[in-house]
């Protein structure tokens, strides 16, 4: 499948967005979709409590934007009205773009899309925000895998300029074209990447994060690795970045790369242990890091 730029003329017009998952990533891009696409966005999750938590977080982000003077009261009201939550996937029946950001497990994502495909129209684009699972494998059981595309955001979604649009061997031109136009409308620069472990960005990041964890596991103290990597000029040290993406997600990214390329990537038992604990750094009430949590 050639990875050339598809013609924007092929792109479908998006009039309603469905988001499966109401967690950290999903809530952030729900906000981006209402702000930039200016269409209704419905989010769903496995229970009402999760849906409510996601919707509340989006609503308070809108309030914060207004409090900071980034949007006026009219805009704030308009955005609030475009956001809704549901536990009933049937509410996605008239969506033309559905994106998922649920737990990074192949079967979970397959089940999500099987349920979505039962209610949406044949022309609805399906997008996955997976960070390192195979998009082809996610779509393997779909009736229409040609309308599935990877659409990989980075955290924090509002700030990071890139989206990786992941093209499988069966993704059709219309889907790819729609994904590129959606990314552009969201104000992101998009690159079309192959469906390979970690795509491009996480492949490179996994190397950095894996080597940093490996240095710790082979005897160099955390604080030494942290200080030694800070002068690289990256906006965060590898450990700060791991906290930002979430330790569970980080551990999963390393596992996926180790499984795909065992001779080139480390998995990290220490990171799995830290993930149970939930954090690496001690933080003050404002979230500023305070040395190491040992
Ligand atoms: N949501 C929305 N906006 C945020 C934000 C968030 N969570 N965090 C920071 N911002 C905004 C701030 O509001 C601020 O915007 P303004 O200038 O308009 O006020 C701007 O970002 C800068 O923030 P700060 O001054 O507070 O802090 P900073 O300059 O230290 O930047 C950072 C913070 C943007 C997170 C920066 O440290 C950074 O770019 N870090 C690297 C992030 C990165 O590499 N992400 C990719 C992770 S990999 C991934 O996500 C993929 C995966 O699959 C695992």
Automatic annotation (TrEMBL):
Q: What is this protein called?
A: 3-hydroxyacyl-CoA dehydrogenase NAD-binding domain-containing protein
The membrane spanning regions, by residue number, are none
Question: Which source organism?
Answer: Frondihabitans peucedani
Q: Which residues form the 3-hydroxyacyl-CoA dehydrogenase NAD binding domain?
A: 16-195
All copies of the 3-hydroxyacyl-CoA dehydrogenase C-terminal domain together span 198-282
Similarity-based family: In the central section; belongs to the 3-hydroxyacyl-CoA dehydrogenase family.
């Amino acid at each position: 499948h050639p990875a050339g730029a598809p013609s924007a003329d092929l792109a479908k017009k998006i009039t309603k967005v469905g988001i499966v998952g109401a967690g950290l990533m999903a809530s952030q891009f729900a906000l981006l979709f209402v702000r930039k696409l200016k269409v209704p966005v419905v989010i769903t999750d496995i229970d009402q409590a999760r849906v409510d938590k996601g919707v509340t977080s989006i609503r308070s982000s809108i309030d914060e934007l207004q409090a900071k003077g980034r949007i006026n009261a009219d805009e704030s009201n308009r955005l609030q009205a475009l956001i809704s939550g549901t536990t009933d996937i049937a509410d996605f029946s008239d969506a033309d773009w559905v994106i998922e950001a649920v737990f990074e497990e192949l079967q979970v994502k397959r089940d999500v899309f099987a349920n979505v495909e039962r209610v949406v129209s044949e022309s609805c684009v399906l997008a996955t925000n997976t960070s390192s699972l195979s998009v082809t494998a996610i779509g393997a059981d779909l009736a229409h895998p040609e309308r599935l595309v990877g659409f990989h955001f980075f955290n924090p979604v509002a700030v990071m300029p890139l989206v990786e649009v992941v093209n499988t061997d069966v993704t059709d031109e219309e889907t790819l074209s729609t994904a590129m136009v959606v990314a552009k409308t969201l104000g992101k620069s998009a690159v079309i990447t192959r469906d390979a472990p970690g795509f491009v960005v996480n492949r490179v990041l996994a190397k950095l994060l894996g080597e940093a964890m490996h240095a710790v596991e082979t005897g160099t103290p955390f604080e030494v690795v942290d200080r030694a990597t800070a002068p690289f000029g990256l906006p965060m040290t590898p450990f700060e970045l791991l906290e930002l993406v979430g330790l569970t997600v980080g551990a999963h990214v390393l596992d996926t790369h180790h499984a795909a390329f065992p001779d080139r990537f480390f998995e990290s038992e220490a990171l799995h242990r830290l993930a149970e604990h939930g954090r690496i750094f001690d933080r003050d009430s404002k979230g500023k890091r305070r040395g190491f949590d040992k």
